[in-house]
Task: inverse folding
C-alpha cells in the first residue's frame, strides 16, 4: 500500500531533487560499487528503494562493506530509525551533525559525509590504436553480461574449530564471492585518514570461496542456538550468530550469493 498519491510522490521527488546526495534510482549494486570504490569510511547516499513509493534507502560505507537502512516518507514526514523529521531541512540538519548509527551486527558507524550525485570527471579519452576481432562467427547470443554480486555483510560469528571442536569468535566479512574471517575486528581512529586499520593490513585466517559451497542452511546438530552451516566438498563450517535474526540475515545473504553464482554458470 502506498503512503501517498502520485501527486505527493512528484512533490517528494521535486523536494529531494534539491538534495545533492540523493541518487534517484541508483541500484543497491551500483551504490555498493560506488561507495566501495570511490567513497571512504562513513560516506553515505540516499536512493530510491525497490520496495515502492515513499520508501528510500540510506547506503553507508562501513570500512569494507556497505550497509543499507530504511528511510520512509509518511504523512509528510521523513522517518529514519527511531526519529521522525517534519521537513526535509530537519532531516538534512540531522545528518549535518554526523549522527552515530548502530546496526544489527553491533557495528557503529559515524555518518561523516554525503557522497555527491554529481562528481567532476576529466574529459580525457584514450585513442584507439588497435581494433581487431580475436574470434570469428560469434553472435549477439554470445554476449553474456557478467559481474560479481556485491552484496556485502560483516560482523562477529562464533566458529567451530576443524580438529579441536571448540568455539571461537571471529570477525567475518562477505564481499563478492569471498567469505573471509579474521581473528578479531581491530579499532582505530577513523578521523585520521593516515591511520590504517590493522584489520586492513592483517591477512585473514582463511578465505572461503563461495563458488565451491554447495549449501547454506540452519543447523540444529550442535549444542548451540542460532547456528548455521556452509557445506564445502572437503569440510562443513559451523557458525553461530548472536541472535536468530542475525543468523537469518547471514543465511539469506549467503544463499543469495549462491543463487547468483548458479546464474552465472
Result:
Amino acid at each position: 500500500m502506498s503512503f501517498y498519491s502520485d501527486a505527493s510522490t512528484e512533490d517528494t521527488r521535486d523536494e529531494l531533487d534539491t538534495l545533492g546526495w540523493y541518487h534517484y534510482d541508483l541500484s543497491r549494486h551500483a551504490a555498493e560499487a560506488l561507495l566501495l570504490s570511490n567513497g571512504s569510511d562513513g560516506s553515505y547516499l540516499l536512493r530510491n528503494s525497490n520496495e515502492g513509493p515513499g520508501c528510500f534507502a540510506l547506503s553507508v560505507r562501513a570500512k569494507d562493506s556497505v550497509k543499507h537502512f530504511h528511510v520512509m516518507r509518511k504523512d509528510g514526514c521523513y522517518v529514519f530509525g527511531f526519529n521522525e523529521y517534519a521537513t526535509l531541512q530537519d532531516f538534512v540538519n540531522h545528518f549535518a551533525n554526523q549522527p552515530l548509527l548502530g546496526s544489527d551486527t553491533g557495528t557503529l558507524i559515524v555518518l561523516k559525509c554525503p557522497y555527491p550525485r554529481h562528481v567532476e570527471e576529466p574529459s580525457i579519452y584514450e585513442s584507439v590504436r588497435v581494433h581487431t576481432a580475436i574470434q570469428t562467427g560469434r553472435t549477439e547470443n554470445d554476449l553474456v553480461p557478467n559481474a560479481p554480486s556485491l552484496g556485502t555483510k560483516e560482523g562477529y560469528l562464533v566458529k567451530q574449530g576443524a580438529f579441536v571442536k571448540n568455539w571461537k569468535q571471529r570477525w567475518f566479512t562477505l564481499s563478492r564471492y569471498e567469505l573471509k574471517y579474521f581473528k578479531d575486528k581491530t579499532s582505530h581512529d577513523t578521523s585520521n585518514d593516515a591511520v590504517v586499520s590493522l584489520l586492513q593490513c592483517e591477512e585473514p585466517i582463511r578465505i572461503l570461496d563461495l563458488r565451491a559451497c554447495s549449501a547454506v542452511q540452519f543447523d540444529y546438530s550442535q549444542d548451540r542456538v542460532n547456528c548455521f552451516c556452509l557445506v564445502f566438498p572437503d569440510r562443513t563450517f559451523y557458525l553461530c550468530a548472536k541472535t536468530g535474526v542475525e543468523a537469518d540475515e547471514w543465511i539469506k545473504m549467503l544463499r543469495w550469493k549462491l543463487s547468483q553464482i548458479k546464474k552465472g554458470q
In short: Residues 187 and 197 are 7 Å apart (CA to CA). The chain is about 20% helix and 30% strand. The helical segments are 6-16, 28-38, 88-96, 198-201, 244-264.
